[in-house]
Amino acid sequence: MNRHRIISLLAAAALMLTMAGCGDGDSSASSSKGEVTPPNGSETAVDFKTGTDGSARVKVNGTDFEVGGKKLWLNGANAPWINWNDFGGSFSFMEWNEHFKALHDSGINCARVWISCNGEVGMDIDEDGNFKGATEQHWKDLSELFSIAEANQVYIMATVQSFDHYKDDENVDNSQEKFSAWRKLIQDGAKTDSYINNYIVPLVKTFGKSDYFFSVDLCNEPDWIFENSECGNIEWEHLSAYYAKAAAAIHANSDVLVTVGLGMPKYNSDKIQGNKISNGYLQSFIEEGPGYSKELAFVDFYSTHWYPWEEGSGMGNPFKQTPEEFGLDTDRPTVIGECPGTPTKMTLAEEYKAAYDLGYDGVLAWKTSGQNDGNGLIDDISPATKEMKEKYEEEIFPLGFLAA
Prior knowledge:
By secondary structure, this protein is an alpha/beta fold. It has one domain (3-396): TIM Barrel, CATH 3.20.20. It has helices at residues 3-14, 86-90, 93-105, 136-151, 179-186, 189-207, 223-227, 236-253, 279-283, 308-312, 348-358, 378-396; strands at residues 58-61, 64-67, 70-72, 74-78, 110-114, 123-125, 131-134, 155-159, 213-220, 257-261, 302-305, 334-338, 362-366. Mean pLDDT is 91; it is low at 12-39.
């Protein structure tokens, strides 16, 4: 029995243990890269125990992901929620454990999970946008999620915000709407710093100990926060300043990778509307002197979303174009972070294979869990991921596939 199988089995056994209550947590940074900023960062309400030892950590080597010196291709899927606002709310250990086992059995090695769907649950933010931290239950639920991920060899891309945080949603009870608070937070530098210090930093310092905490997705489709009045029409300067400072803080405090799930390539490309997460643009928001380290303000990979209407709007098609032809910089890995799980012009298996052949580093179709929105669920996506796993198992599970 190889070492990685033993580690995974130990992690599976750990799932049966009761999660810690209000422990002090381990506030030590797992990386010595750069200056640790913001200076402290609140602690979580759990002392997370990982079953990993660093050997399964995903790293970037040029334009590739690597694990243990071997290339990794993300045969992924979106598993955003089982029940909206699971973490700190309706989280079920049994449901998530069963679902991640199904992902693993489908050959899926990476899941994009919305650990905060719209900021209504699990987040302690007042009406003026002052952020105090996450709830104890939120942290406990995340402890179970990352233990489940370890046991099932599924890397997690944790999405911490969405345009939904800023959306004036008429379907939400007005007494509980927090969209105004999130708008105030993102447009006030000091309040943004507090959010990073009291949430982003403790998130990566606590759970970044797990090799299967692959990356933080700082926001789902911020394009709509900028473009849509119902989301506030907030300027990119405020949005990208948050991404810059959060990326710098994550890189200073952990080995967790960073991205932003842009909804359209036009805001991820200097060839279209300008790359709002390029190194130069992000670093322009970091002031010289004490504080965030300018050189750490970057995303490790691009995770652009794509739906068929975008091709009709002149933004190309990643299943027909290389990343460069699609308009993206080619100095880092690129994944297709969302696409329909029920395409019409090609099969999903053909799209995954085309992305592999064209030089993308992974695909995460929408979606395996939650309500059926017409774009697919796990039964629609699993035939494609199983086929890719059979063809490219050494790149999808470079440490070996843990049989069920």
